[in-house]
Specification:
The chain contains six helices and four strands; from the N terminus they run αααβαβαββα. The chain is an alpha+beta fold and 216 residues long. A hairpin with a 3-residue loop joins strand 3 and strand 4. Helix 1 packs antiparallel against helix 2. About 3% of the residues have low confidence.
């Protein structure tokens, strides 16, 4: 009887600990998703402000240096946020809430890319747009390894080049019409791929120099 009692007691304690762990994990994941959504709302407001400035180019004069500076600051901000979000995604189970939050950021980054192209054209800015298209969910093992290499190289390029590079990662397989139209326009049919200044497509990157040569 004593052994059965001890076993039952241990089982109850184990169940309680397991349930507490699941609850805390759920709360932590929910907190992270809320933070991602808060960041999205802040970034969305900043980008809307920039879009209004860019649209106003046609009717009033703007200080291009100020507009370019704001664009660079925004790019740096979403780049840093993207790294934090990636850590959250790596730590969490990929679920519908995470996927939805990721889609919203993909749309935001796509809109930023379009705005960045317009600013570059209007102001003759000398920064480089580097758009990194990759597969987000259910990635085959070999492709996942390749994407890790691409991501690592691009992070190093951004650290080296700083304000000279607008690094814009976008998940290409996310069922977003706006992204699909751009994939079609630039004839992107395999992933991962790096698109530099809307001209050069790289599907095989072995060294940093494979990217650097297009930034001179």
């Amino acid at each position: 009887m004593n052994q059965k009692y001890v076993f039952l007691q241990a089982l109850i304690v184990t169940i309680i600990i397991f349930n507490v762990g699941v609850f805390l994990g759920y709360k932590l994941e929910g907190s992270r998703i809320n933070q991602i959504n808060d960041w999205y709302l802040e970034a969305d407001m900043e980008l809307l402000d920039q879009r209004i400035q860019t649209d106003a180019f046609d009717i009033i004069d703007f200080d291009c240096n100020a507009v370019i500076k704001e664009n660079i600051n925004f790019a740096d901000n979403i780049f840093e946020k993207a790294k934090v979000i990636q850590r959250y995604e790596d730590a969490n189970k990929i679920n519908s809430d995470i996927i939805l939050a990721h889609k919203r950021y993909d749309l935001l980054r796509t809109l930023f890319w379009i705005n960045s192209m317009r600013i570059k054209e209007k102001c003759q800015a000398n920064y480089h747009n580097i758009v990194y298209f990759y597969q987000y969910n259910n990635v085959p093992l070999e492709q996942d390894a390749k994407q890790a290499v691409f991501s690592n190289f691009l992070s190093k390029i951004k650290q080296e080049e700083g304000d000279k590079v607008m690094l814009i990662p976008i998940a290409a397989v996310n069922n977003l019409s706006a992204v699909n139209l751009l994939l079609e326009k630039y004839e992107i049919k395999e992933l991962p791929v790096v698109l530099i200044d809307e001209k050069t497509k790289l599907t095989d990157v072995q060294t940093l120099d494979d990217i650097r040569r297009y930034l001179n």
